[in-house]
């Protein structure tokens, strides 16, 4: 399957949280134009064969949700990809590995004291939100064969994971989570409420442990750029 089988009309929304994750994509856009809405800049044009709308949302779930809704309501995108770096959670994952989402969750929603499970999204009635598997397969096909790729649950929260107790909390409630970041769950939340397919692709910049801050500082730019390059390969299918 190709993206053209899914994107019949409209454009592809792409969200990155940081400049280091977005710049390579921004410079790949042909005939790029800019529009600012809600103090957020959106870049429109073409990458390869597809019309795209690219934005740097900023770090965190609220910023990511805002950018997602603007992409849907103002630019009428057909789907949204979220690209960038993340911290690995599952055993055996290493810096530089790729994770492609089959689902996402907001691990930091905590309403257990009133009898609802960790991560429960009351508007949707779920704790885990399903990504579009067609979009996942398409982006996986663009990742070179020499790279290590995992596919599964990506969790999000408004915390940078660098302590063992944080990691244990996530793994207690979301034992199948492959990696943690700070935007994908909110993007998935907004997309599902709007009926828009989405997919998250992340390259690991750290392994969500006591060395995360140092590793993130060293590898986040590299990981963000690697993820962006995959998006460009995919759009030039």
What this model shows, in words?
The protein is 32% helix and 30% strand. Strands 5-9-8-6-10 form a five-stranded mixed barrel, surrounded by four helices. The mean pLDDT is 94. It has one domain: Nucleoside phosphorylase domain (Rossmann fold), CATH 3.40.50. Helix 1 runs parallel beside helix 6 and helix 2 runs parallel beside helix 5. The chain is α/β, with parallel strands linked by helices and 237 residues long. The longest helix is centred in the C-terminal third of the chain and has 24 residues.
Here the CATH topology equals Rossmann fold
Gross geometry: globular
Radius of gyration: 16 Å
Determine the structural class based on helices, strands and strand pairing.
alpha/beta
The fourth-level CATH homologous superfamily is Nucleoside phosphorylase domain
Largest sheet: 5 strands, mixed, barrel
Discrete helix count? 6
Précis, in short:
The chain is built from 6 helices and 10 strands. It has 237 residues and is of the alpha/beta class.
Name the features.
alpha/beta; 6 helices; globular
């Amino acid at each position: 399957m190709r993206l053209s089988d899914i994107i019949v009309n409209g454009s592809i929304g792409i969200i990155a949280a940081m400049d280091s994750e977005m710049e390579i994509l921004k410079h790949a856009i042909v005939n790029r134009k800019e529009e600012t809405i809600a103090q957020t800049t959106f870049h429109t044009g073409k990458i390869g064969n597809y019309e795209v709308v690219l934005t740097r949302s900023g770090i965190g779930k609220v910023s990511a949700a805002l950018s997602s809704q603007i992409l849907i309501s103002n630019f009428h995108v057909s789907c949204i990809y979220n690209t960038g770096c993340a911290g690995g959670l599952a055993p055996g994952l290493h810096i530089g590995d790729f994770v492609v989402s089959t689902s996402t969750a907001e691990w930091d929603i905590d309403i257990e004291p009133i009898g609802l499970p960790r991560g429960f999204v009351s508007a949707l009635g779920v704790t885990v939100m399903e990504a579009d598997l067609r979009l996942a397969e398409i982006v996986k096909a663009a990742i070179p064969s020499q790279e290590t790729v995992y596919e599964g649950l990506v969790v999000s929260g408004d915390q940078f994971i660098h302590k063992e107790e944080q990691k244990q909390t996530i793994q207690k409630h979301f034992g199948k989570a492959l990696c943690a970041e700070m935007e994908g769950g909110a993007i998935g939340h907004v997309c599902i409420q709007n009926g828009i397919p989405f997919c998250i692709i992340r390259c690991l910049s750290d392994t969500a442990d006591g060395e995360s801050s140092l590793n993130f500082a060293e590898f986040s730019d590299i990981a963000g750029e690697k993820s962006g390059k995959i998006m460009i390969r995919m759009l030039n299918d």
